[in-house]
Design goal:
With 454 residues, the protein is α+β, with helices and mostly antiparallel strands. The chain contains 12 helices and 20 strands. Bound molecules: iron/sulfur cluster.
């Protein structure tokens, strides 16, 4: 069933600027030691940049022809392969690599407002995914989301199966948490009470692994050739049929969806700057590398900074293609912010490139009709202020799985169709066709003046 040409640890895909390797990170987390190993391997075997992806993974570009296997083995031996094992054979690593598509909040276990710490549940899910050989048949794009109710969470990114922790009124809050679940989309937000029908049941944290395992087997049982994603299956089968098939793998029945509580809305601006953690003596500090792109010396500098200021010596990638340093003591906040600023990162959402994303563009992708990265930089300079903008070299939208306030879709070098977010599908409503960067900047600035910005 897996026919995608999606890059992976051992599936290095050739492109205009060399091979691409995607390194799936558990919960977006990268230890300082792993960051240094990755920088070392990229220096040895690649010549391109390192991109943070919209699933909080990393992608190394420009892997030199003939060095693909050596690059992959260097990462596996450093512990960046499935399950962190350093002695996996290439065959075993390839079989397990692509099933690790599980997104959690970059501040899972650290946000004081979260309903539950999802990290133990996520660990159990990943172990289950790796232990079932049949799940290697899933598409490398088949993705799960486990949302613990954190304020910093990418809820607009559709997933094949999503689970959202619902807060309950109960003497023992943790024991009372239930995960509502749904398919092929996003969880409803706190204000979309009418959308509760998008959830198909609920389960306790201890039953999540068994439930997801059953749903994945049911998906594989029912999917026909060509149905690689949940949305494809739901064209021919109802969610009730999927659940009925899943029940054959379960010794319990999922509970009905409970009354939907008023959940705390996500606030993506918490990806910038310092924020106090659940352990009130520690902070996370978020920052945005320009257009989600790092070079090896920046990655090494981040690793060194994590060793110096993060009690866990880790970096967390975010689905906004940014980086968080967790577990920073209050007295280290200023120097961490200064170090990130020196690296060229945006530490507030006010900087012109802070909320701008762009796909690889014509410098590395043969499909691209424009040099989106260079155009994004030029557009940010013209605007001189922060706006939520996505530049895409073609309709595949590799840089964003959600809808940005403004999307510029390339039609020719330096020329774009402009879309505005309106809640409809795709990029939103087309507001102007064939605009230059200058015209796009004018339109976006006008739109920001006539609304409360976006
Ligand atoms: S969105 Fe299109 S042009 Fe941009 S990187 Fe993806 S395939 Fe290439």
């Amino acid at each position: 069933m897996s026919t995608s040409n999606c890059p992976g640890l051992l599936h290095i895909v050739p492109t205009r600027d060399g091979g691409i390797c995607r390194i799936r990170l558990s919960g977006g987390m990268l230890s300082a030691a792993h960051a240094e190993a990755l920088a070392h391997a990229a220096e040895q075997y690649a010549s391109g940049p390192i991109d943070v992806t919209n699933r909080a993974n990393l992608q190394v570009r420009g892997i030199r022809a003939g060095h693909e296997a050596a690059f992959s083995m260097a990462l596996i031996q450093a512990g960046l392969g499935p399950g962190g094992q350093c002695d996996l054979s290439p065959q075993a690593a390839a079989a397990q690599d692509t099933v690790r598509n599980l997104m959690i909040s970059p501040v899972a276990g650290r946000d004081p407002a979260a309903t539950i710490d999802t990290r133990p549940v996520a660990e159990a899910l990943l172990a289950m995914l790796l232990a079932e050989p049949r799940f290697a048949q899933l598409s490398p794009k088949f993705a799960l989301m486990l949302d613990g109710g954190e304020r910093l969470a990418m809820r607009e990114h559709p997933h094949d199966i999503w689970l959202l922790a619902l807060p309950r009124t109960c003497p023992d809050a943790d024991a009372c948490v239930q995960f509502a679940f749904g398919f092929a989309g996003c969880p409803p937000s706190g204000i979309e009470l009418a959308s509760v029908s998008r959830a198909w049941g609920a389960t306790s944290p201890s039953q999540v692994t068994a439930l997801v395992r059953a749903l994945l087997h049911a998906f594989l049982d029912l999917a026909q050739p060509g149905q690689s994603r949940m949305r494809d299956l739901l064209v021919t089968h109802s969610p009730e049929q999927l659940l009925q098939q899943a029940r054959t793998y379960l010794d319990f029945a999922p509970a009905p969806v409970p009354e939907w509580p008023q959940t705390i809305p996500a606030d993506p601006m918490l990806r910038f700057g310092p924020h106090r953690q659940r352990d009130a003596s520690r902070w996370w500090i978020g920052a945005q590398p320009p257009l989600g792109r790092l070079d090896t010396s920046t990655l090494r500098a981040l690793a060194q900074l994590a060793r110096e200021v993060s009690a866990s010596s880790t970096l967390h990638m975010t689905p906004w293609q940014g980086v968080l340093l967790p577990d920073v003591a209050q007295q280290d906040i200023d120097r961490t912010m200064s170090a990130l600023t020196r690296l060229g990162f945006a530490c507030t959402g006010r900087e012109p490139l802070a909320r701008m994303i762009a796909c690889t563009g014509s410098s590395g992708c043969a499909r691209a009709l424009a040099d989106t990265k260079a155009d994004a930089t030029a557009l940010a300079q013209r605007l001189g202020a922060s706006h939520d903008i996505h530049l895409s070299g073609c309709p595949r939208s590799c840089a964003a799985a959600h809808q940005s306030a403004h999307t510029l879709l390339a039609v020719a070098p330096g020329t774009y169709d402009m879309y505005r977010r309106d809640g409809s599908t795709g990029f939103g409503t087309c507001a102007a066709r064939h605009v230059s960067l200058e015209q796009a900047a004018g339109e976006i600035a006008r739109s920001a003046r006539s609304t409360s910005d976006v």
